[in-house]
Every structure is written in C-alpha cells, then in structure tokens.
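#lab-general

N.A. 3:47 PM
ok so I finally got the sequence cleaned up, no stray characters, all 413 residues accounted for. can someone with queue access submit it? mine expired

B.Y. 3:52 PM
send it over

N.A. 3:53 PM
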Amino acid sequence: MTKKVGITEVVLRDGNQSLLSTRLKMEDILPIASKLDEVGYSSIESWGGAIFDSCVRYLDEDPWDRLRQLKDAMPKTKQQMLLRGQNLVGYKHYSDEIVSKFIEKAVSNGIDIFRIFDALNDLRNIKHSVQEVKKNGKHAQGTIAFTISPVHTLENWVNLAKEIQDMDCDSLCIKDMSGILSPEYAFELVSALKRAISIPIHLHTHATTGMSNLTNMRAIEAGVDNIDTSISSMSMGYGHSATETILYLMKEKEIDVEQIENVMKVNFFGTLNCIKSVEKYYRNKKSGHISIVSSIAGYRGLPNSTGYGPSKSALNNLAESLFFDFKRYGVRVSLISPGFIKTPMTDKNDFKMPFLKTSEYAAEKIYDGLVNKNSFEIHFPKSLTTILKILSFLPNKIYFGLIGKLTKYQKKN
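B.Y. 4:20 PM
back already:
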C-alpha cells in the first residue's frame, strides 16, 4: 500500500439508524462529540437519511438545530450527510427549487460532504443535487446502489461510475446497503473502478450477512480510498463493521510508507551523510578506517521488517561499494553486523530473540574486529550469523519455507 485509507464514522447516522431506529437524542450524543472530533476521521456521517424524519416524528427535536450543534461540537471533522437525490430526506420527489434551497441550508448549517444516491441508480434523480452541492462549494459524492442481478454486471457498474465522474462528482461511493457485496467481488469491483475512473472511491457496506470485515479488507487491498465503520458498541448485526476492528486489521496488513521513509532516512541516509562529511578528509589523508554498523537483518528479507531490514541491506551494499571506492585512497572500510543485543530498546520487543547477547559482549567483539583483525565484516555471535549466512545461499523456495515455519513457531510461543 502506498497511501492511508480514510475512515468515515457512521455511528451518529447510519449506525444509529440501523441498530436503534435513529432514536439517539442530542443529549446522548453531545457528551461524546468532542471525543469523536479528536479521532481524526476523514468525515463523520451525522445527518441525512432518516435523521430528519425521526427528529420531527419521534424525538421532538429540530433537525436543523441538531446539525448546528453537531457542527459546533465537532469543528475539526467534516460533517457528512446522506441525501436521497430528488427525494432529499423524504419519501417522494421534490421540485428542483426545493432541492436547491434544502442543499443551500444544509451547507449553511454545517454539512461538508453530500453522499447522493438514487435507489434505482437513475442518475437523472441525483444530477440536480450534485450541481447544487458543487454550486455551494461542497463535496459531492455520487453513489452506486449495489445489488445483484443478471443485468448488474461489472461492466454495468464501471459504466455507471464513469457517468458519475462525468457529472463532476468529487468522489464515488459503492453503497452496499444489504451487506451482499462479497469480499472477492469487492476486490474485482474496486480494481475495475480504479482502472476506469480517477476520482476517489469509497465503500459503504453493512454487516448483515457477516461478510463486512472481509469485504472491507479486500476492498482496501484493491485500493479503495475510504471505508465506512461504526464504533464497536454500535456495530455489526444490521449495522457496520466496528471501527476498532477495521483499524486493527489495517494495522496488521498496512505497509506504512511514511514510517519506512523515516527509517531509511535515519539508518541509510544518516550513515551516508556522515560518510560524506569525512570523505574529503580521508581522501586527502590517504589513510583511515570507516566502519559501518548494519545488522544481520540485512542478509535476507524477514517477516515484519519492511523498513528496518531493507535499510540494513542497503547499508551492506553501500559498505561493499565504498570498500572499492576508498581502497585506492588507502582507507579501510568495514562492516559490523551484530545479532540480537540486550538493550533498553530490544527489551521492548515482543518476539523471541535467539542468541541474545549483552552489550559488553558486543563491545568486545567490535573492538577485537576493528583493532586486532583485518576482515571486512565483523559479525557475531557466530552461532547465529553462520546459520543466517548459510540460509542466504539457499534457493528462495527453501528459504521462504524455513523462515515461514520459524516465524509461525515464534508467534505461537
């Protein structure tokens, strides 16, 4: 993955609607609103759908005042609503004039993102709403209402998505209200849409059939930009995947590019910049010794080491290259590859560290290699590094099999 996936929290609208028939009153919501505002959601769906109807019919609340209070309580987070196209938040078509005025007032009272859909995917019924949202300078999200039938093919969804993009929508939502979007079809659908359109793609699915967690994760693997979730206490059932569950699953799978870049900046480029700062001095002096500290993690790829391992592998290659470049100036270059050393940092590791050695042991080995020996690489403990060096010569299939079994064993223990 090369980007982070946005999370839209739906607990205040669709989570509330799906599990509690939209009966949460503002006195229930306001005490927690400021906490929700601090989470960092891409948006919070807080209005639209059945909210308007329920406020008037059951809760004895002003839906417009509800929106203003939510906006005031969550100023950092974009407020999102579900709009039924020409139906607005009702159950019949309204005139274009009514639609225009409603959207204008929704914007002035706090809505930032409008998810606009027609239940039958008749885009004529969302066109005016999209135009009015854009006219008011807000985010218009066009929607495809997902279903299964002989005519609803992958080609059909792609063509519909292209039409939505051509309407100048800012993003596209796959709205799976029944939870019938399977994980594998989600992967196929999102992959096809990513190839066909350039606007961001959001996924909204329900947990009704029990597939939502897998469906969300497969969509993420296919490159979806944003997903909808609901806080665990109001999730699953007819609702949605739990926010905490999806975050955990994403953390398990996610490649954090930013973190890897930081590791490379410190481990590799930090070392390179240090060498660059003394390069001229050593070349003029025609003698000296540069020693680069790497790790046995750089010998070959290891699980859960997408940043650290590659940075050390790069240092190994750098040391070998500099060995030739500096040799003609009479400058010695060596490489230090320690195994697991007990330090306050390694004490935080939650996995087994075979052949763990003390820092005093490491210091003796490094001193002996730098002062008393003339080898290029100082590696220790030999009982571990010898095994890893042998493994590094194995064919990929054998190496992956052995390391896979070893790491599974560590996880179980």
